[in-house]
């Protein structure tokens, strides 16, 4: 599960530390190069429901392995881009097959482990996504400074191919797959309509949107803040910011164990509160305090992702869990896509402080939705 998470996220955000460099090379605006982040996440959001419907009856392992292969090809082809538009196109294709990994893995965990262990195992998977995101961002920045941005994509594409081979060799075939329910027998549109009538699921979709919005929004736009005076960080230094993800590798499994004791609503409340505190700390004039803020933000987001992914197991009906996971991922990555572009309007109004105010408002909204929407029905 850790390897699946890492391989899914090697490339997804690899252009974040490269944004100031790409803006100079392609003579593009901040919003323009921000599309290299949004295009990949938009690809994930658009294809997730389709993968959810197609994968409902297909072997879980087969879908995961073929999706890993599908991610690596456009990553390698991105290195051939001669314009920003071409790079954005390949980034979009990178995102298209990612739901075949993450939507199916979330369902696989819910099926293969007992309910009281799902949050803990989900935390290991989320730690894997953090590891993959960290390695992708740091290696892309360092390789771009030492060689070129094209080399970054070639190395990441080769790493994805190796990861696909390892998952094909090591991942067990699922043994505890849920039997198809009546919902699984009907059409996709009927399933979607039925899922959207589930209050707890709709709240989970909304929380997922806000969770990724805060992470991508901060780590995308803070690169412009820290590359300018008085910080003047280089591309390698910007990529080094993602070392804070390593804290999440330790914190998230521990928090996953704690969530199994205190409950999902308490866990999501603590996680989002931690994230809000982290975002506010990035307003400090000290680089050390800003790094502390990024640490709190990323750790809080990883814990929130563990809680919201685990809540799918509780809220989604058996036989439609892949479809529910696909819809969750759609909203989750629509949040990531919006975060690469929408804060640009606030940047134009008031720079980084305006972006912080907007992102904190989104996080507070997510907290309110989770506390109200995740209440257990009295009949249950």
Question: Which features would summarize this protein structure in a list?
Answer:
380 residues; Growth Hormone, Chain: A; 79% helix
Could you write a compact summary of the structure shown?
It contains 17 helices and no strands. The chain has helices at 2-9, 19-25, 30-54, 60-78, 84-96, 99-112, 118-146, 149-170, 182-185, 188-196, 199-227, 235-240, 245-262, 264-281, 287-315, 321-339, 343-373. Residues 181-185 have low confidence and may be disordered.
Question: Can you walk me through this structure?
Answer:
It is a single chain. By secondary structure, the chain is an all-alpha fold. The protein has a single domain (2-169, 188-373), classed as Up-down Bundle (Growth Hormone, Chain: A). Helix content is 79%, strand content 0%. The protein has 17 helices and no strands. It has helices at 2-9, 19-25, 30-54, 60-78, 84-96, 99-112, 118-146, 149-170, 182-185, 188-196, 199-227, 235-240, 245-262, 264-281, 287-315, 321-339, 343-373. Helix 7 (118-146) runs antiparallel to helix 8 (149-170). The longest helix has 31 residues, at 343-373. The chain starts with a helix and ends in a 7-residue tail after the last helix.
Question: Could you outline the blueprint of secondary structure elements for this entry?
Answer:
Elements: H1 2-9, H2 19-25, H3 30-54, H4 60-78, H5 84-96, H6 99-112, H7 118-146, H8 149-170, H9 182-185, H10 188-196, H11 199-227, H12 235-240, H13 245-262, H14 264-281, H15 287-315, H16 321-339, H17 343-373
Helix pairs in contact: 1-7, 1-8, 2-3, 3-5, 3-6, 3-16, 4-5, 4-6, 4-8, 6-16, 7-8, 7-13, 7-15, 11-15, 11-16, 11-17, 13-14, 13-15, 14-15, 14-17
């Amino acid at each position: 599960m850790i390897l699946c998470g890492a391989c899914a996220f090697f490339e997804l955000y690899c252009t974040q530390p490269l944004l100031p460099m790409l803006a100079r090379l392609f003579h593009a605006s901040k919003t323009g190069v921000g599309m290299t982040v949004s295009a990949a996440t938009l690809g994930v959001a658009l294809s997730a429901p389709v993968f959810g419907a197609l994968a409902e009856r297909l072997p879980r392992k087969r879908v995961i392995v073929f999706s890993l292969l599908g991610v690596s090809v456009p990553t390698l082809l991105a290195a051939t881009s001669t314009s920003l538009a071409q790079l954005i196109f390949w980034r979009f294709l990178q995102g298209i097959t990612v739901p075949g990994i993450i939507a199916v893995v979330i369902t696989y965990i819910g099926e293969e482990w007992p309910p009281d262990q799902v949050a803990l195992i989900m935390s290991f998977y989320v730690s894997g996504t953090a590891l993959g995101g960290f390695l992708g961002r740091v290696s892309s920045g360092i390789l771009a400074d030492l060689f070129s941005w094209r080399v970054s994509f070639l190395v990441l594409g080769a790493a994805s191919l190796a990861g696909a081979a390892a998952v094909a060799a090591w991942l067990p075939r699922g043994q505890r797959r849920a039997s198809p329910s009546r919902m699984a027998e009907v059409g996709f549109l009927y399933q979607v309509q039925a899922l959207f009538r589930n209050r707890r699921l709709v709240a989970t979709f909304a929380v997922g949107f806000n969770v990724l919005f805060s992470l991508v929004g901060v780590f995308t736009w803070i690169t412009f803040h820290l590359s300018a005076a008085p910080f003047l960080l280089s591309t390698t230094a910007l990529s080094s910011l993602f070392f804070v993800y390593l804290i999440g590798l330790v914190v998230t499994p521990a928090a996953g164990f704690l969530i199994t004791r205190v409950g999902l609503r308490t866990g999501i409340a603590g996680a989002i509160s931690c994230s809000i505190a982290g975002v506010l700390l990035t307003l400090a004039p000290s680089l050390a305090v800003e790094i502390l803020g990024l640490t709190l933000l990323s750790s809080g987001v990883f814990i929130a992702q563990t809680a919201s992914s685990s809540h799918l197991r509780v809220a989604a009906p058996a036989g439609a869990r892949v479809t529910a996971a696909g819809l969750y991922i759609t909203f989750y990555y629509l949040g990531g896509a919006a975060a690469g572009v929408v804060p640009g309007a606030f940047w134009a109004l008031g720079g980084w402080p305006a972006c912080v105010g907007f992102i904190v408002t989104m996080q507070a909204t997510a907290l309110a939705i989770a506390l109200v929407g995740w209440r257990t029905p009295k009949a249950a």
